Amino acid sequence: MISLYLRPDKTQVVKGQLKKDKTLFITAATEIQSYWAALTEQTNNYRKQTDEFYDEESLLMEDEEENLALSDLFYEIKSVVSTTYEEFHIILPDSLFCMINCAEFLTEEEFMHSVRAKTNKADEDVYYSFPLLTAPGGQPRKTFFAIERKFVNRLIAAAKEENITVSSIEPASMAFIRSCASWQEEHFLLEIFEDQATMVSYSPIGGIFSMNVPSLTAKQLNLDVEAANREIQSMFAIHDYTAEKIFSSMNVNVPFVILTEDKKILEIHSLKERSVQANIFPSFVNADIDSKDHQEWMVPIGAFLQNYEIEDELYATLPPFLQISSANVLPQNIQMGAKFQQWKKLAKKYSKLAIAFLSVLTVLDIAGILYFSSVTISPKLQADYDAAQKDIKDIDAEIKTLAAAKKEHEYPIEAFTQIVKDKPNNCGFSSIMIGSSGQGKSADEKWIRLNAVSSDPLIFQDYVAALSNDDIFAGVGITKMNTEASSGFKTAEISIGKGKVQ
Amino acid sequence: MSNLNNIVTYFPNFLKEKDMIFYAIILLTLLLTVSFGTSKLAISYQEAQETELQIATMQNFLNEWTEKTKIVNQATYRPVKAIQIDDVQTSILLALQANQLDVISFKAVTSSKKEENSHMFEIEFAGSFESTIHLLNNFHAKDALLSIHNLKMEPNKGKIKTTMQYKIYAK
Q: Which is more confidently placed, A62 or B91?
């Protein structure tokens, strides 16, 4: 949100953001030159000063020129703060409003009649708003603001040229009172500019009325201090009398908030006597602005508070008999149009974000698809695999055969070598049989069968003992022993099992 | 809720805005593209996972194949082709002759088990003890895979008579 306070002496520009917790964050607050002349003067002096070729044709284009000069305001704002997707709220000094008053409940016809009578303006020349409806004793009273359409139309046209949609145009007093957030109290404002001065008074039971006081302009007050003192006292007296009449009851000598750039004026005794201590922002406004300067920025910040709902902290002190709404003088159709434009901008913003997001997703999808599609079995791997598949049966069979050969081999040389090595002297063999026709365990138990021959039977025992000590043999034993009748030699049949062979 | 109300309120106005319709068409197109792309991506991902699993299986198989090939290639003796069995027998008989051993008998042994990849033979020969041991110590025929299954040695008329059963392994 951006708010502009178009003052005669300068233009205040504030940018803010309303958080979900209804805290208002002020992100920028700055001042630029005044565009008051471009807004208020019938002819556009602002442009004429710099345009060397200002001729008759240009005069015919006066209105357009005027808008162009005002459009410089929006152009300049764009250079100061980012305006993309922002709502624009404009605040105008109360002196520019042709009528600010409150009265017992009026119909629209009665109100228009009252405006015609007081301002001498036709119905189609004014925009108006009814921001306050108060009924303290059951007697309803309405507050109304009226402004000449030409000012509003100039602003809307100028903003449009810079592709900006204005959401609201309000009087400064209403924005200021709102930013005070104390609805149960009376607020008296005195806006003093070089050539304008306006008193605006708010009472929760009465409403708001204003008085233009040309004798209290900065120019007048700076002429003669003594005369200024007298004039101020006189004006305060008139104000109090008027307020008493309009509000029917009010507190006596309520202090004024003096809104002026000219600090010298604030030193005038009678003004100082009646001025109130400077206001500060409500607690829900978060701004990096020194508290002594808060009052100076309360008007543009008050415009943002239009977006608060009645249940928010802003309206915590609202008396039950008082109804508050915006003092936005823009007609309903323009407000709707502005709101729609705002929604359209937001819709465009989020559409662009969604398009960007979806485009990135699409690219990521494509990248992912391409990546995952690239995961294929390489032709070389496939060829190697196919060849190995063909080969593996033969290899498995060969490995099986190698294992079988190792298992079936009876290691006769190793066995024979050890048998001969362990053989005692005086012992011979009649036969040796290595390997078995048996299967499995029994084959290993009967690995070797040998027939030994000796004259001494004890030799066999030594032989068996020697064989038993050899690791490659196991279960060595004499299974049979005989004596040969012809020679008298002893024969022994020795059975040897398989031990740890290789 | 108020935002929803605003959207409902302003929706007919949006329908009159050409640029908003353009945005809506682009958004819709992109939404469809993303939906299609995402489902396609999911399928591609699944297929890629399956392919990677297949590649891993193939590589494991090839590693196993390499290991087995190494085992076979490192073996000193390997099974021979069936047609080479006669050559192996010839080599064995020549070795007997070279060691001055007399062949008494030679026959093929038919096994009770069905063994397609091996052929059992029984040979009887006689000769000196040294010649017999020399033959047994060098009992091989080139790189053919042989195993001695049974060996019987006994003296006979001043010589050593050896009866041996051996297997020749074939592919």
A: B91
* Chain A contacts in chain B segment 64-103 (CB below 8 A): 65, 68-69, 71-72, 75, 77-79
Tokens of residue B112, six digits: 């009770």
Query: What is the reported pLDDT for B114?
Result: 63
Write the ipTM. 0.78
Q: What is the CA radius of gyration of chain B?
A: 41
**Is pLDDT above 70 for B4?**
no
Whether the CB of A465 is below 8 Å from some CB of chain B: the reply is: no
Residue A267 dihedral angles phi and psi, to the nearest 5°: -85, -10
- Of the residues B74, B98, B130, the one at which a domain ends: B74
Nearest residue in chain B measured CA to CA from A338: B10
Cβ of B44 under 8 Å from any chain A Cβ? yes
Q: Does B87 share its domain with B161?
A: yes
What span, in angstroms and rounded, lies between the C-alpha atoms of A299 and A285?
13
Residue B1: is its pLDDT beyond 60?
Answer: no
For residue B23, give its domain range: 2-74
Q: Please tell me whether residues B91 and B161 are part of one structural domain.
A: yes
The answer, for B116 touching chain A at a CB cutoff of 8 Å, is no
- Contact with chain A for residue B108, Cβ under 8 A: no
- What does the pLDDT read at residue A53? 39
Among B47, B145, B149, whose Cβ lies nearest the Cβ of A372? B47
pLDDT for A444 equals 72
Phi, psi of A207 (to 5 degrees): 125, -145
Asked if B39 and B67 sit in the same domain, the reply is yes
Task: Enumerate residue ranges in chain A where pLDDT < 70.
Answer: 42-68, 436-443, 502
B57-82 residues labelled b (16+ CB within 10 A) or e (exposed): ebeeebeebeebbeebeebebbbbee
**How many domains in chain B?**
2
* Count of CB pairs separated by less than 8 Å, A with B: 181
> Do B94 and B164 sit in the same domain of this protein?
yes
